[in-house]
Write a structure and sequence with these properties.
Strand content of chain A: under 5%
Number of strands of chain A: 5
Strand order of the largest sheet of chain B: 1-2
Oligomer: heterodimer
Distance between the termini of chain A: 34 Å
Structural class of chain A: mainly alpha
Distance between the termini of chain B: 16 Å
Strand content of chain B: under 5%
Structural class of chain B: mainly alpha
Largest sheet of chain A: 3 strands, antiparallel
Radius of gyration of chain A: 27 Å
Chain lengths: 446, 474
């Protein structure tokens, strides 16, 4: 999706897929074929491992104990921090600011890694190798994968970086998926002929788009800008409002154009070339050199933010999804069950959402899986170039970035490199596994 | 054929236009004031004598860059905005006025208020005052200058109150300017008292004709004027002229290399299909395809260009120190030594991609009738593969080359950045870190155009070699 190699590899095989009899997403047949290959299962378990790491990042690497007893009082500092963040718990001032590593305990259970990614260990600065001598009090305080120049722990960075990578990958592909599935389905289902409007309706729809843009985005420009400053939740809300206005006005105007139905010229019905328009749009987005555009946009924003990164990847990643969805939909829409649904008098919209789209989902899942892989790689590439995420967020690409200026520290390039490589590879393997499982031509040897 | 090419190009025309439009819009929305950034830095001049000159210089540069024109051929805005707002020369003041209109919608009042700020400021500048009041006058002046730039209600009121108290307290202000300051406050309260927000909801379409920024930008682009770098005030075209050869050279060389290697690997795989060699090759190519460029680049940097492990290749640049004096062939060898790793890193992705595609294509071919016929004629396996199977499988690759270009552009950025090759990619990154927006936008525009041309060419190429494609009938 972002990187090009998926362009070619995702396209073949989607043409003739196994009919997914039970309807939704991945059927039992596909799963049975998928798990016949051991390597697929290995890749899938690695992804599960990554998801677990991302979820439990704070339990694996944290600078406070999981549980401990001090002066007769039982503490669960990691969980207390969670509660404190939610406003349900308040640390005493002395406990909040103290260094838990030097405290004395009656008994204590530490997380496997005793550092947060941004903790600076002043005694172990200047790139300590994982196997070299480290100035630590106990074995448990070692930096298992070494430190970078300022004394930050590499392993902790990797663990917490998993969370950032997966979040960006999943959310961006989520956005791309929603846009792509919707546009692709509309293009494929309605084609160039199925939607017909009167001349007046087409004209008013065109005017409606302009007006929708005016009232949705131009009139609300300052509202949107202020919302941007206020935080991600409010920009999300206001953006939705703007989008709703943008969509509602053309629809309303088209609906109003009914009054012209009886008028001779204006009432003449014409086909709306939805498929043509959406296909051109897909083509347009596919010609944009994504990385260059992202770099350009990043250069234009004054503040780095993960939210912005997700939005960019989401808004640029949809064409590949849409293309595949459209191909699938073109195949599905002429099948009997769609015809019978029409005969039962269901509306186009209902048929599309309830029957057609679920049946097209399996091949699209493959594209989405590849999309997550390429988004994670692209995010790492950006962080590696030093322009992706904010500086205080530790990511895999960010660790590699610090390797560029510290040539001899092999642990700074090898471990994050492995993490990115393994993640991308397992996602690609799972994607190819699903695709092969969907493709009846692929034979599995016993 | 010509008709097909014509049609295909026609379909690309809107895409081209939109890409140009996107570049243009990005270039007009850069953070900061482009005029400020293009102005020569003059830190030594004093505040006083600088001001008038700066204003003139600002207007001159703004005019030179065409920034005092409307943005596009037409504009869609609301009735509240006057159609000549773009003529306000200073960007920050223009933005301030724009937001004031966006808040109150009553342009005549806003204009009166804004003019009042200007006239009070002018009178204040020409005011002769005893030396012990200088600092107060300066404070008043600052407040007025900030009033020209801030649309926020609280900030305006704070500054007006400050001016009011200064007007009460400082004798020279009290005698000469107090009336005007009162007048200014009155204008402001009038502006707030008579808002006409309904005007903001009436869409208005205005036509400006060819005298607009986009028109000028486009004709400049066609003539090769890409603006001037903020960094050293050199023309961007000049910088690109120095950087482009390296990228093109590397791209061309790695293209040849990767195609050659990919074909060899693909054929090798097919000749040994269903043996362990092919399986190993498949796995190897899959892994190769999965390793992102920057990881390979970093690993090579760490292990092969490092005095701690192996120093086989130089770390950065394209030539050794003092290489200018060396004889020609030695210099070429030096360049080759420096460029080996970047070219390898740049190519291996395409190798994996192309040979995977090739292998898949040939695998499907091998069971087709024409191959069986060729075999039945008694042709050797070698001839069948090279002359019959490979040829057909190369066809679909033609389209893929076009779609590889966006990735190559991205790959060039990363490779050149890691190995410090002074090509387009490094130029982009350096511009990125020094906020040199004209350079970034020029590179983006050129990269998009290259991509578009590449895809167009590969489509035409595909149609030329494959007679089944026709665009005349659906």
């Amino acid at each position: 999706m972002i990187m090009p190699r998926e362009d070619g590899t995702a396209a073949p095989g989607t043409g003739s897929t196994i009919q997914v009899a039970s309807g939704r997403f991945l059927s039992r047949t596909v799963w049975r074929r998928f798990k016949r290959s051991k390597i697929n299962l290995v890749a899938l378990s690695f992804i599960a491992f990554l998801v677990l790491t991302a979820l439990l990042a704070d339990i694996i690497a944290y600078n406070k104990p999981l549980a401990c007893k001090r002066e007769g009082v039982l503490y669960f500092p990691v969980f207390a921090d969670y509660l404190a963040k939610a406003g349900l718990y308040h640390w005493d001032m002395d406990k909040l600011n103290e260094d838990w590593k030097t405290a004395t305990y009656q008994w204590v259970i530490w997380p496997p890694v005793r550092y947060l990614p941004n903790d600076i260990d002043y005694r172990n600065q200047r790139l300590l190798s994982p196997f070299g001598k480290q100035d630590v009090a106990t074995w448990g305080e070692r930096h298992f994968l070494g430190t970078e120049r300022d004394g930050r722990d590499v392993l902790s960075g990797l663990v917490h970086g998993t969370r950032v990578s997966l979040t960006i990958g999943l959310l961006a592909v989520g956005i791309a998926g929603i846009i792509g599935i919707f546009l692709g389905a509309v293009a494929g289902y309605f084609g160039d002929t199925r939607i017909q409007l009167s001349t007046a309706g087409i004209c008013m729809g065109g005017i409606g788009l302009v007006l929708g843009y005016f009232y949705g985005f131009q009139v609300r420009a300052y509202t949107l800008r202020d919302a941007m400053a206020a935080g991600s939740l409010s920009i999300f809300f206001h953006f939705l409002v703007s989008m709703a206005i943008f969509v509602a006005i053309p629809l309303l105007l088209v609906w109003c154009s009914r009054v012209f139905h009886r008028v001779p010229v204006l009432g003449k019905r014409r086909e709306v070339w939805l498929d043509m328009m959406i296909s051109r749009l897909i083509e347009l987005f596919m010609t944009i050199p994504t990385l260059l555009l992202v770099i350009t946009l990043m250069a234009m924003t004054e503040e780095k933010s993960i939210f912005f990164l997700i939005a960019i990847f989401g808004l640029l990643g949809w064409p590949n999804v849409a293309r595949n969805m459209r191909t699938e939909m073109l195949r599905t829409r002429s099948q009997e069950f769609i015809e019978s649904a029409r005969a039962l008098g269901y509306s186009h919209f209902r048929i599309m959402v309830r029957h057609a789209i679920p049946n097209c989902m399996s091949p699209v899942m493959v594209v989405l899986t590849f999309g997550v892989a390429s988004t994670i790689v692209a995010e790492a590439a950006l962080s590696f170039l030093g322009i992706g995420v904010p500086d205080d967020v530790m990511t895999w690409g960010g660790l590699l970035y610090s390797a560029k200026s510290n040539g001899s520290a092999w642990w700074l390039s090898v471990f994050p490199g492995m993490a990115i490589f393994l993640t991308a590879t397992s996602l690609n393997l799972v994607g190819e596994g699903i695709r092969d499982a969907l493709d009846p031509r692929v034979q599995y040897e016993k | 054929m010509l008709r097909y090419i014509g049609r295909r190009s026609l379909i690309f025309a809107p895409t081209l236009f939109i890409i140009l439009l996107v570049s243009f819009l990005i270039s007009r929305n850069v953070p900061g004031d482009p005029v400020e950034n293009s102005m020569p830095r003059t830190p030594h001049l004093t505040y006083e004598m600088d001001a008038a000159e700066r204003t003139l210089e600002y207007a001159r540069i703004s005019h030179e860059m065409g920034l005092d024109l409307p943005l596009f051929y037409f504009s869609l805005s609301s009735l509240a905005y006057p159609d000549t707002l773009y003529r306000i020369p200073v960007l920050a003041e223009r933005q301030n006025l724009h937001e004031l209109v966006g808040t109150y919608g009553n342009w005549p009042f806003i204009s009166a208020y804004f003019h009042e700020v200007g006239s009070v400021l002018e009178q204040l500048k020409s005011l002769e005052a005893p030396s012990d009041e200088k600092s107060d006058l300066l404070e008043a002046r600052r407040a007025l200058e900030e009033l020209r730039l801030t649309p926020k209600e609280t900030e305006i009121q704070y500054r007006l109150a400050l001016l009011d108290s200064l007007g009460e307290r400082v004798p020279s202000l009290r005698t000469h300017l107090q009336a005007q300051i009162r007048q200014l406050a009155l204008r402001y309260s009038e502006m707030k008292a008579h808002p006409e927000r309904w005007r903001l909801y009436v869409p208005t379409l205005r036509w400006y004709g060819a005298g607009n920024q986009f028109h000028h930008w486009l004709s400049d682009l066609l003539r090769g004027h890409l603006g001037k770098s903020y960094q050293d005030h050199l023309p961007v075209a000049e910088k690109i002229k120095h950087a482009l050869p390296w990228t093109v050279f590397m791209g061309f060389f790695s293209f040849m290399l990767s195609t050659l290697v990919a074909i060899l690997l693909g054929v090798y795989g097919i000749r040994n299909r269903d043996r362990w060699q092919d399986n190993a090759l498949t796995v190897g190519l899959f892994l190769m395809n999965s390793v992102p460029t920057f990881i390979t680049a970093m690993l090579l940097m760490t292990f092969v260009c490092n005095e701690d492990y192996l120093q086989l290749f130089p770390t950065s640049g394209v030539a050794s120190d003092g290489a200018e004096q060396w004889p020609l062939w030695y210099r070429l060898l030096d360049h080759a030594h420096h460029l080996t790793l970047p070219t390898l890193v740049f190519s291996y992705h395409s190798v994996a991609f192309i040979s995977r595609q090739l292998r898949a294509g040939m695998l499907e071919n091998m069971n087709l009738d024409y191959i069986r016929t060729a075999r039945a004629k008694g042709l050797s396996e070698r001839t069948v593969i090279w002359r019959h199977s490979l040829r057909t499988s190369l066809l679909p690759l033609a389209t893929h080359f076009g779609h590889l270009i966006p990735a190559l552009v991205g790959g060039a950025v990363i490779t050149e950045y890691v190995f410090s090759v002074p090509g387009m990619g490094l130029l982009t990154m350096q511009a990125m870190f020094s906020f040199d927006h004209p350079v970034i936008i020029a590179v983006f525009t050129m990269g998009s155009l290259a991509t578009l041309t590449g895809i167009l060419l590969s489509d035409i190429l595909y149609a030329m070699v494959d007679p089944r494609i026709s665009y005349s009938k659906k």
